[in-house]
């Protein structure tokens, strides 16, 4: 249970934890911070979450920017985005999440599907599940 410990972390501390690149720590921080600010769309948390979703990058930055974000971190970021905007009915976030439902996680660690009839990779299933649950959070009733 979150006891408010993430609230006291300063931006340099968050950066240090995220910079280490430890997947479990990154997933925990993304989800924990989103849980801390459920439905509040906190700007700092929003920025940190969006840094882990390659489709939110500016196209001018190039496609190589998201190569270092693991599929698990991308899925956690999608789930975190839904928590941040829970019960807000935010149209742009909803459009983004609907678009993500048909996507695969990006990056070097994602293997291409070799056969059309092959089941989707586990990373893709996790990614789509996160997008779908985020979409559900977005339109959940606040009562």
Polypeptide structure, described:
- It is a single chain.
- The protein has about 140 residues and is mostly helical.
- It has one domain (about 5-140).
- The protein contains six helices and no strands.
- It has helices at about 10-20, 25-35, 45-50, 70-85, 90-100, 120-140.
- Helix 2 packs parallel to helix 4, helix 3 runs antiparallel to helix 4 and helix 4 (about 70-85) packs parallel to helix 6.
- The radius of gyration is 15 Å and the shape is globular.
Please describe the biggest sheet, giving its number of strands, its sense, and whether it closes into a barrel. Answer: none
Q: Please count the helical segments.
A: 6
Cα-atom radius of gyration = 15 Å
Q: Classify the helix fraction into a percent range.
A: 40-55%
Count of spatially separate domains: 1
Approximate shape: globular
- Low-confidence spans: 108-119
Nearest-integer average pLDDT: 77
How widely separated are the two ends? 22 Å
Kindly name the structural category: mainly alpha
Instruction: Tell me the quaternary state.
Output: single chain
| SSE ordering | HHHHHH
Number of strands: 0
Strand content: under 5%
Topology:
Blueprint: H1 11-19, H2 23-36, H3 43-50, H4 71-84, H5 91-100, H6 122-138
Helix pairs in contact: 2-4, 3-4, 4-6, 5-6
Salient structural properties:
single chain; 143 residues; 50% helix; 0% strand
Task: Offer a quick outline of the entry.
The chain is 50% helix and 0% strand. With 143 residues, the chain is mainly α.
């Amino acid at each position: 249970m979150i006891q408010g410990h993430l609230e006291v972390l300063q931006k340099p501390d968050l950066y240090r934890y995220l910079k280490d690149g430890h997947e479990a720590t990154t997933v925990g921080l993304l989800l924990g911070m989103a849980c801390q600010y459920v439905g509040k769309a906190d700007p700092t948390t929003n920025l940190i979450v969006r840094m882990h979703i390659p489709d939110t990058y500016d196209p001018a930055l190039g496609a190589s920017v998201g190569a270092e974000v693991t599929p698990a971190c991308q899925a956690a970021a999608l789930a975190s985005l839904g928590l941040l905007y829970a019960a807000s009915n935010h149209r742009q976030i909803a459009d983004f999440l609907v678009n993500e439902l048909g996507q695969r996680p990006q990056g070097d660690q994602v293997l291409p599907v070799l056969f059309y009839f092959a089941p989707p990779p586990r990373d893709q299933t996790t990614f789509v599940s996160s997008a779908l649950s985020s979409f559900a959070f977005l339109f959940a009733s606040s009562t």
